Hints:
- The chain is an alpha+beta fold.
- The protein has 11 helices and 28 strands.
- The strands form 6 sheets. Strands 17, 18, 19, 20, 21, 24, 25, 26, 27 and 28 form a 10-stranded antiparallel sheet that branches. It has a 6-stranded parallel sheet with strand order 3-2-4-5-7-6, sandwiched between helices.
- It is elongated.
- The relative contact order is 0.07.
- The model is unreliable at 1-15 (pLDDT under 50).
Amino acid sequence: MKSASAEVHRVEDLAQDAPITGAEIVVRCLQAEGVKHVFGYPGGAVLYIYDEIFKQDSFQHILVRHEQAAVHAADAYSRSSLLVGVALVTSGPGVTNAVTGIATAYMDSIPLVILTGQVPTHAIGQDAFQECDTVGITRPCVKHNFLVKDVRELAPTICKAFYIARSGRPGPVLVDIPKDVSIARCAFEYPRNLSLRSYNPVVKGHMGQIKKAVQLLLAAERPMIYTGGGVILANASDLLNRLVDRLNAPCTNTLMGLGGMRASNRKFVGMPGMHGTYEANIVAEDFALRLGLRETQPVMLNGDQGFSRKGPDPHAASYYYSVPHLKVSGTVARDGQSDAVTGEAWLDHEWSSEYLDADAVGWDWIGINRADGGALMAFRVRDLKGNQLWAGGSVRSGDGATQILRPEEIEFRAGRQWISPRTGTAYPVQWWVRLGGREIALRPLMEDQENDARLSTGAIYWEGAVSAYEHGATVGSGYLELTGYGERLRLR
């Protein structure tokens, strides 16, 4: 590398108007932008650029094993350094391999400059070897892209790319460089003062619009502040926390916005979505329940990897998973008195396009968080005579191992009944349930836990909290659901 460095010094000593190749211009542009690291993978269309990179020592080229890795690495470099990341890939498959990384940077507003090789200008559109429509393919997932057909436009274009990538809302900018442009020659002159007539990003908020937004927040009955990665990129976390405290409104962050709001703040409700925090908020005239639920264990897939049969006919089935041992924190308010509560909960998520078996009238169902960290789920579907038509269950041990139970391994035996004073329905609220070689007893925390859901599911049923016992000792707690006792269950 020493001899190569000496050569580049000789080149730099030449007059600024001495013609140099497009490949040399690319290197000079990166040096002018203060680039210290370039992530790339060589290919035929960019070999001349790689030759010039080899001759210099002002920035380091980091060789990856796949073009997608080059863009992801440049993305990560930009996130951690707050500088513009640079990636270099070849034409055709090199570009298409890079698209995933480009789209990631675009979605997360990460400033990148992606330099791509292209077939010679005369071969563009001629189905040449390793040719693809780079500009067309990447247009939906870049902030801007360029195709350079004249070497004299190469330096101004790269300068524009860096300016667009880092200014306004940041994002990836792609510069497509045909092979003949990289070997053509012209004098190098890097723009000192760049002005783009068609690109003037707004970098300061409009005071009138800000006042309108504040008025809407203040007038909202239940305002909710929803923030994303822009808070992190703008280093505005402190301002966000002050705004939340001033408005006294709940706040949630997207995945990219995590860290923008203090997680210890009671007004932070966690992250939304499938990886976020579950919420339970019920507000009535004299009662309010506000709970946040956070996962502490992986989901438990029931049945055959989540496909759970509900009858002898395999079509009577559902997709079904459980989330045991949810950590709960929140408040319960009654008659103006609010109390903090903590504990554990259980979540079932089930969906199906098939109704129950034609002979089914209802089911008995349990989900129990065991005190040792394990969990168990079991159900039986009853026929017209009250006998077991089908059954299923999952038992997770404290170490996370899960056993799926067959129908013949499950037996529900009813004990004491409770008769509803509203509907006259008799519900067996005490149970013994055999799960393989073990048996647990279930007792309700209170007898009256009947639910009237005729306006939603169309059913009246019993579902409530129970304690689980084994050999007379408490081993856990959870829920018991009993349907089809007043009348046959009809889902709608």
